[in-house]
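Open question from group meeting: does this chain pack into something compact, or does most of it stay loose? Before anyone orders reagents, we agreed to write out a predicted structure and look at it together. Recording both the input and the output here so the notebook holds the full record.
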Amino acid sequence: MFARMNRVLTLVAAGVVLAVAPSAHAFFTLNFDENGNGSVSVNNGAFVPTVGVLADDPSQAGVQLVLTYTLPEPVVAGTVQVLEPVTLILGDVIRFTSATGTLTGAADRMIFYSDNTDGVDALADTGFPANLTEGAQGGPIFETGPEGNNRFQFVASGPNIYNGVSDASVPEPGTLFLLGIGLLSFLARPRRWGR
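Structure tokens returned:
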């Protein structure tokens, strides 16, 4: 009877250990810009497109429509400030939050806020959150590259990597129209083979 009871307790203990053992989480690399263009690689797999959308900001009451990327895995909630390299002026903010706007615990989305110093109205050019210092994730990070095409990288624990492009230029509609006309005229021209 004691042998059977000991075996049952051993199985129960093994079950408890299995139940509380941490599951393996995927890690990912997210490339994104302030116009909603992005790609994500999970566990070093191929990059697949992901799109940022304008959505309500759950982390600020009354603030609407901020550039939001859905994350492939839950991450730690918080805020990261991105500074200009020489002037140390705030240039961008990335915020990890949940649908309820919490800045602690787990997050399933990333909000990208940017300034509008380059004169281009990008989706992220909504200004910075009023509660900027809530949920700070360590010290600030810094942009690299020339003004007008700044880049930054945030490496979080986990080890997720976020590669952001700020102040990315977007072709004006007139430029896109001219490029389209040129392409159509090239495709419509008669071809002569064998000469």
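Observations to bring back to the group:
The longest strand covers residues 66-76.
Confidence is low (pLDDT under 50) at residues 1-23, 171-193.
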